[in-house]
Predict the structure.
Amino acid sequence: MTRKHKVSAFIPVQNVEDIIRPCLESVQWVDEIFIVDAFSTDRTLEICREFPNVKIVQHEYENSGAQRSWGMPQVAHDWVFIIDSDERCTAELHAEIDNILARDDIVHDGFLVPIKTKFLGKLQNHDRYLGYKGMRLVHRNAYKQYTLRRVHSTLDVKNRSRIRNKEAFIIHEPIRDFKNHLHKMARYANWAANDLFEKGKHAHWYHFTLRPFYKFFNHYFFKLGFLDGIRGLILCSIAAWAVFLKYYALFVLEHSSEIEKQEDKSIIGP
């Protein structure tokens, strides 16, 4: 099917030489692969340059939303397919996007795309903690509708639709290495805690007990994570642990700030 609207794939990267190739291979059908690199020091850019229609720009990393809102106005085409380096576009999703872009007029400004997590070689079909759907096919001007956070910036396109084909989705494979994943969780917890701290939020006892428990219960039972077997159990436990880490990091920030204030007072004197 001939596309009447051209599309750019938008991929933010930083030191992802071990995972970027499958992502790039899955989007070779686009008219432009637009890379925003946060000054990688490994072979990431070397690998990216092996592919046709690649444009690379560099921007210091702030957060995922900031990278996208900074880079999207620079893409060559009006439609943007947003995909991360640890994700892959399926052939079925490619076909659905082609169907949308083959229309004379596209009446929506964005399309929600299903996302499924692949964990230790197996797709997870029920739990939604690391997937479900995201605003991933958008008009270039949608960058103006980002709500920026250090973690999980949101793109809230009002005039939107969705990909309804259940076989068309993005494969997300965020957990490949145990040690690196623990470091990533700690980094994300720290970013999320900083967002909360700047808003004046405080960590209370229920953030360490009730909130993680609810997170696990919600994803494991209400969102049917138990149907994914032991992998579902692990992912839902990770979801609960991530909540605990976030508020632990916030607790540390609060008390570190108090200690600094006390030390400042002791230096200045009465």
Notes: The CA atoms of residues 17 and 44 lie 4 Å apart. The first strand starts at residue 7 and ends at 13. The helical segments are 20-26, 44-48, 64-71, 91-101, 178-198, 205-208, 210-222, 229-268. DSSP finds eight helices and twelve strands in the chain.
